[in-house]
Amino acid sequence: MASTLISSKANSGKSSSNSITSNETPITEEELRKKETPITISDILKLRKATNNYLTETDRNVYKIDFVHFRIRDMKTNKVLFEVERGQVDEGDPDNDQELEVGRFVQYHFPSSFLKLKQVGALVDFTVGDREVQSFRMIERHYFRDQLIKSFDFDFGFCPPNTRNSIEHIYEMPEFTAKQVKEMVEYPNETKSDSFYFVDNQLIMHKKAAYVFDLEHSH
């Protein structure tokens, strides 16, 4: 399988200010689940809180995009904060529904000092199946207690078929007040994120995460 390195500059993540102050009519998760046409980026940007359930079925990923390696690092110190590499799926069962379902949710445990970082790099390796992927894009929205903290917009661009691709997204972290940090530590799993993946402006994958910030390991 060929490999492709996709470059990602620090300004790839776009500020969420436009999304937070948008005058567009908000849309609910329930309304999106009933939508008969494909869910688009514009639809997702109208959401005002984290989702409770997934907005796509696992079989919507007709491009066979599979995330196999993920690493988070502090851009200032280069310290690795989180890293995981998925084992290869058993060739006899490439579409294992249980494995696909488990891979859609991540529970993160970070020291509270994570909330004071300025820039974080998230490196991801992913494979693509037999179909080329045009205009692969991710919208990632972070919430605390259903209040939008930040929205990121990353463009993967074109991905050739039968390749393993690598890209590092640079996150410009929001600045939190001491009160916000205290609350996010005191209320574990109330900080959540939705990652929505689109090809040609049609939602094909949806991943979720919850965050715990541990004060005891903040040094």
List strands and helices in order, with pairings.
Elements (H helix, E strand, L loop, with lengths): L1 E5 L10 H4 L8 H6 L6 H4 L21 E9 L5 E6 L11 H6 L2 E7 L7 E9 L5 E12 L2 E13 L3 E10 L5 H9 L4 E9 L2 E13 L5
Parallel strand pairs: 1-8, 4-10
Antiparallel strand pairs: 2-3, 2-5, 5-8, 6-7, 6-9, 9-10
Pfam families: GMP_PDE_delta
GO cellular component, one term: cilium
Keywords: Lipid-binding, Protein transport, Transport
Label the CATH architecture: Distorted Sandwich
Number of strands: 10
Radius of gyration computed on alpha carbons: 17 Å
Tally of distinct domains: 1
User: What is the residue-averaged pLDDT?
Assistant: 85
Keywords:
219 residues, single chain, mainly beta, five-stranded mixed beta sheet, Coagulation Factor XIII, Chain A, domain 1
Description:
The protein starts with a strand and ends in a 5-residue tail after the last strand. The relative contact order is 0.25. Mean pLDDT is about 85; it is low at about 5-20 and about 90-100. The protein has helices at about 15-20, 30-35, 40-45, 95-100, 180-185, and strands at about 1-5, 65-75, 80-85, 105-110, 120-125, 135-145, 145-160, 165-170, 190-200, 200-215. The strands form 2 sheets. Strands 1-8-5-2-3 form a 5-stranded mixed β-sheet, with no helix packed on it. It has a 5-stranded mixed β-sheet with strand order 4-10-9-6-7. Helix content is about 15%, strand content about 40%. The chain has one domain (about 1-95, about 105-215): Coagulation Factor XIII, Chain A, domain 1, CATH 2.70.50. It contains 5 helices and 10 strands. A hairpin with a 5-residue loop joins strand 2 (about 65-75) and strand 3. By secondary structure, it is mostly beta strands. One of its GO terms (molecular function) is lipid binding. One of its GO terms (biological process) is cilium assembly. Belongs to the PDE6D/unc-119 family. Pfam families: GMP_PDE_delta (PF05351). InterPro entries: Ig_E-set (IPR014756), PDE6D_unc-119_myristoyl-bd (IPR051519), PDED_dom (IPR008015), PDED_dom_sf (IPR037036).
